[in-house]
Write a structure and sequence with these properties.
The chain has two domains: 163 residues, Periplasmic binding protein-like II (D-Maltodextrin-Binding Protein, domain 2, 3-Layer(aba) Sandwich), CATH 3.40.190; 58 residues, D-Maltodextrin-Binding Protein, domain 2, CATH 3.40.190.10. 21% of the residues lie in helices and 20% in strands. The protein is built from five helices and ten strands; from the N terminus they run E-E-E-H-H-E-H-E-H-E-E-E-E-H-E. It comes from Scaphiopus holbrookii.
Length: 239
């Protein structure tokens, strides 16, 4: 039995949860109910919004948990590189000689939330991400070459009932509502960990005193290096 306990959770939104969504381009015409044979983009195998939730829902509906037989091609970082679950993955586009294709880290360009969205932009039919992903990477918010000209109005959500909805309607059109990620520690260290993290957040959190020295919720190189880059703050979980 584990002796670890959650002590603080990250807040991507004020409510302390986020929504797992199926994101698509607006100029397509399929639905959640006829995804079979489409090209899918996942944040990574074993990750909540990008894998566990959509795979679980599809398996419950179809009786098939083998996504390599459900989707025609995918990028699901962490899969067997020779399977069709890695066919859409590209590795590091700036160094094709590196054997990084389908690795579950930022050496794979399509890894993580932004990576799965990039996969959708460049080659996929549907991306399984969180509800803020499209908004964080469109309308000039992401200045990378692949994202700088993207418009949020060109994307929408697939709803489980077979309909579609604008990005703004994620509260009623989502696959699941998910608790925010948590910092986990031993019970006897809990108070110390909460105190230290809270103090550091006051210095290096969003809008705090020392953003030029260090940023807890931003990655200057790579993505999501310490906490998710979209984290607003950490909040204490009641014992």
């Amino acid at each position: 039995k584990s002796n670890m306990r959650p002590c603080q959770s990250s807040k991507p939104q004020i409510r302390g949860t986020y929504f797992s969504v199926a994101l698509v381009k607006k100029n397509t015409n399929f639905s959640w109910l006829n995804l079979k044979g489409k090209k899918s983009c996942h944040t990574g195998v074993g990750r909540t919004a990008g894998w566990n939730i959509p795979v679980g829902l599809i398996a419950n509906r179809t009786g098939n948990c083998d996504m390599s037989k459900f989707f025609s091609q995918s990028c699901a970082p962490g899969s067997d590189v020779d399977s069709n679950l890695c066919q859409l993955c590209v590795g590091n586009p700036e160094n094709r000689l590196e054997k990084t294709k389908c690795l579950p880290n930022d050496k794979e360009a399509y890894y993580g939330y932004a990576g799965a969205f990039r996969c959708l932009v460049e080659t996929g039919d549907v991306a399984f991400v969180k509800h803020t992903t499209a908004l964080e990477n469109t309308d000039g918010k992401n200045t990378a070459n692949w994202a700088k000209n993207l418009k949020s109005e060109d994307y929408e959500l697939l709803c489980p009932d077979g309909s579609r909805a604008p990005l703004s309607e994620y509260k009623t059109c989502h696959l699941a509502e998910v608790p925010a990620h948590a910092v986990v520690t031993r019970p006897e260290r809990r108070n110390d960990v909460v105190r230290i993290i809270s103090n550091q957040q006051e210095l290096y959190g969003r809008g705090k005193f020392e953003p030029d020295i260090f940023q807890m919720f931003g990655s200057k190189t790579g993505r999501d290096l310490l906490f998710k880059d979209s984290t607003l703050c950490l909040t204490e979980i009641a014992e």
